Amino acid sequence: MYDRRVVRGNTYALQVIPACTHPDPLEIQRQRETRRRALARKRTKEQEQSRTPEPVEGREHVCVQTELYLEEISDWVIGIDTECQTDAFLDRPPTPLFIPAKTGKDVATQIEEGELFDFDIEVKPILEVLVGKTVEQALLEVMEEEELARLWAHQCAYAELRNAELAEVQRLEEQDRRYREEKERRKRQHKELLQKQKETTEKIAARAFAKRYLADLIPSVFNNLHESGFFYDPIERDIETEFLPWLMTEVEETLERKVLGRTMLDSLIRTVVEKRLDAFSSQPSFDQTEEPAEEPKPTDIEPQVAIETDADDQPVTEEKETEKLVAEAQRPRRISFMLHDSDQAETEDLETE
Amino acid sequence: MAHARISANLPPNIDPTKAPIAFGRRGLPKLNEELQSPELLTQQRALMALCDLVHDPEKVYQMVEIGFLDNLKTLLRHHDSTIRQKTTEVLYIMAMHSVGRQGLIQNGVISALAELLDDPVDICRKNTHQTFEMMAKLPEGAVDILRAGLIPFLVLKLKTEPDEIQELILDTLSNCLRVEASEALANDAVTILKEKLTHPSVAIRSKAAWVLLEIGTHPEGKNTICEEVTPVLVSLLEDADPEVQASATGALMFATVKPQGRFSALGAGAIPPLLKLVAEETSKARLSAIKTLTMLAEVPEGRRTLLGHTDTFQQCLNDPSEAVKRAAQIAIRVIQWKPF
After folding, report:
1. What are the tens digits of pLDDT across the range A166-182?
2. Compositional bias (Basic and acidic residues) at which positions (chain A) (predicted)?
3. Domain with B119 in it
4. Is A271 part of a structural domain of the chain?
5. Which of residues 154-193 of A touch B (CB under 8 A)?
6. Which domain holds residue A258?
7. Contacts for A225 with CB less than 8 Å, ≥ 6 apart
8. A245 lies in a domain?
9. pLDDT tens profile A245-256
10. How many domains does chain B have?
């Protein structure tokens, strides 16, 4: 750094500083004027010269001159090399003991044994505290261990008890389960037994009842069958089915023959009577005898029926029959009746024959 | 610049592996921040300091309140084994306090710990199993473990892990299976436990028998045990160690509730060793033995055999324990019961 006050470099090459420090007023004035002129010249020069661009907003161009602070870098300072060497170490003698001069008074004091304090008495409380604390700590540790051991033993005993109780509970549970199952089984067995018994009694009762109910089944069945004709006497059946129809047909045939005969006879008689009528028509008095003969016929029939039942009056009946036969064509209803009567007569005839 | 340290020699009681703990209430929050720092050394030192602090229940409560457990859960998956080991140790010590246990359940730490079951480092796994064991002692903890579906993994691990970890697993299983046994049965736990019953180590034998006991409290478990395990349990009754005898008797007690169990126990000749156990005044298995004999007395052959031994039960009536007296009375009543 350049300090104007400090002289650098050659002192004898430098200019002599003026001795007087108070400059003349004239000199000062002249200096001022020259400065002013220089400034004016500078300004004109600046104005003529092309200026540097205008400063940016907010900034200001400032002229700076480092003249005052210029340093000649190439200034070679004159230097001289010199060497120096100290002598080899010499043994220094020890410094003598510094004993200051004695001033003041000499006074001596001495602490005899037993004057300051009694070690044995004083050490007791300290020792007591030390030993006491150590023992207390040791006791604490031992107590802790003992407590832990006691707790552990207590826990073991408790665990044992707990296990024993648990086992007892489970044993009783098991026992209870067994008893219950046994009870259930027995109850079931007993129920089955009762069920079976009930069934057996019901079966017996049903059997007895059925037996009694069906006791007269067979006779009633046989009765019913018998009544409905399932058990028939074969001969009787035979007679009924074959013999009697044959008999009836034969009887019918015989009766038909009889009827035929009678019809023949009727027609014969009719023709005869007609012939006679014709023959006797010349004599009309016989008509009246015939008509009354016809009228009492309905009344005659009843007594005739009564009479005809007699088997002894056969010829009489024959006569009556012939009289009836005259009026047959007009009274068909009576014919059948008469036929019936004649049938009966015929059967009687047949029987007598 | 002035340092807080005056001399280059550290004071004699400082452990350089631990982070310095701030005073009073500021201690744990500062450790919390240090745990989240990206630098490994800081995290390790913070964890070491935490392990010491966590023995105090008040600190545990404060930790749960501040929300340490989320950070610890993240750290469980760290690649550095020291960090994992220390984190699991912290969680284990927390689980020893009741507040800590509650906090662990609420923050779902158990499922996060489940990932560490396959950790290559032994000590991490051991701490994990210790934590599970502690949690399983609490009923909600046991339910949580069951719900996280850890039982199949634990049963599988029984085959592969070293002995001390197996003991921890057996303890965890016994506490969890007390609640529900179906998952374990589905994973064929009974076969594995049957092998363990003949293990040379006493602790493993007794704990395996205890797990079988817990399985036997459930009906479906009883069926499996009756079929396969009863003869082995009967042989364990004559084991030298009283713990093993006690657990085996307990397991038999539950196995003989069902009729098939009773028959298989009788067939294996369970009555003489049980009578011996009852006769001993100071055996732990006395109560269980009396109960088992009560179960066996409900079977006709058992009753016949036991009718000759009722004086043993009479002696039990003088036992100081109330439960034993009651059990002996019940036993005498069952033995002398007649159907008519």
Report:
1. 888 888 888 899 999 99
2. 45-58, 317-326
3. 26-148
4. yes
5. 156, 160-161, 163-164, 166-168, 170-171, 174-175
6. 234-276
7. A231
8. yes
9. 898 999 999 999
10. 1
